[in-house]
Design goal:
The protein is built from nine helices and seven strands; from the N terminus they run βαβαβαβαβααβαααβ. By secondary structure, the protein is α/β, with parallel strands linked by helices.
Length: 252
């Protein structure tokens, strides 16, 4: 284990988009950052390189958060390279091609829920085991990256993704109460209409541009705008905030 005294942040899905922006911003704020990725090794290494070039400390670890053994190994490697996690951002998430519910099959649902729900639970479990004062830890903070979709439903596009984020909202509420007396705060951000690559996975890379003018703010959001909210929720500035949600969706 490293002897550094920096707080240690693990960001799942940290190679791109909101995860990468969060990794860079939190590293600049003094966190040692474990950047998790599943496939985008080059992108993850680039994020770590940017962190290190700016004088920070980072490490990239490949793991599929939907697989329990890989989550366990992810946290063990973070322990070894950076130290026990004191902050977790459950950001990893997937969506699939836009379609109606009556067109979806069980394999699609299993894929989406394995990453978006099971993965978040497993990572939260491992984080609590390290952070909880009940288990000898010194406390910490968890931020779940939900979505405006959990409130809006995403009809005709990806109700399965929206439902998975609804489960993440419930995890946030329940876990926050479960560990509040153990030095752990659990909150969530609910981004919407953010310019990231995830929209291409749904088959509409320019979805944000299509929707932007219908939003009260009449523009899409940027990953850095979400990262700023995540950093605040992780920080001591939010020390009396738990079980809360920040909607970052241009007023929708």
């Amino acid at each position: 284990m490293s002897n550094n005294r920096r707080p240690v942040l693990l960001v799942t899905g940290g190679s791109r988009g909101i995860g990468a922006a969060t990794a860079r911003l939190c590293a600049a704020a003094g966190y040692s950052v474990c950047v998790n990725y599943r496939e985008a090794a080059d992108a993850a290494r680039q994020v770590v390189g940017e962190i290190e070039s700016a004088g920070g400390q980072g490490h990239a670890v490949r793991a599929d958060v939907g697989v329990e053994s890989e989550v366990e190994r992810l946290f063990e490697l973070c322990d070894e390279r950076l130290g026990p996690v004191t902050a977790l951002v459950n950001n990893a998430g997937i969506l699939e091609q836009q379609m109606r519910v009556d067109e979806m099959d069980a394999d699609r649902l299993r894929r989406v829920f394995a990453v978006n729900v099971v993965g978040a639970f497993l990572c939260a479990r491992e984080a609590v085991r390290r952070m909880s004062t009940r288990r000898g830890g010194s406390g910490g903070a968890i931020v779940n990256v939900s979505s405006a979709a959990s409130r809006l439903g995403s009809a005709g596009e990806y109700v399965d993704y929206a439902s998975s984020k609804g489960a993440l909202d419930t995890l946030t509420l329940g876990l926050s109460k479960e560990v509040a007396s153990e030095g752990i705060r659990v909150n969530a951000v609910r981004p919407g209409f953010i310019r990231t690559e995830i929209h291409a996975s749904g088959g509409e890379a320019d979805r944000v541009e299509r929707i932007a003018k219908s939003l009260p703010m009449q523009r899409g959001g940027e990953p850095d705008e979400v990262a700023q909210a995540i950093l605040w929720l992780l920080s001591d500035a939010a020390s009396y905030v738990t079980g809360s949600f920040i909607d970052i969706a241009g007023g929708r």
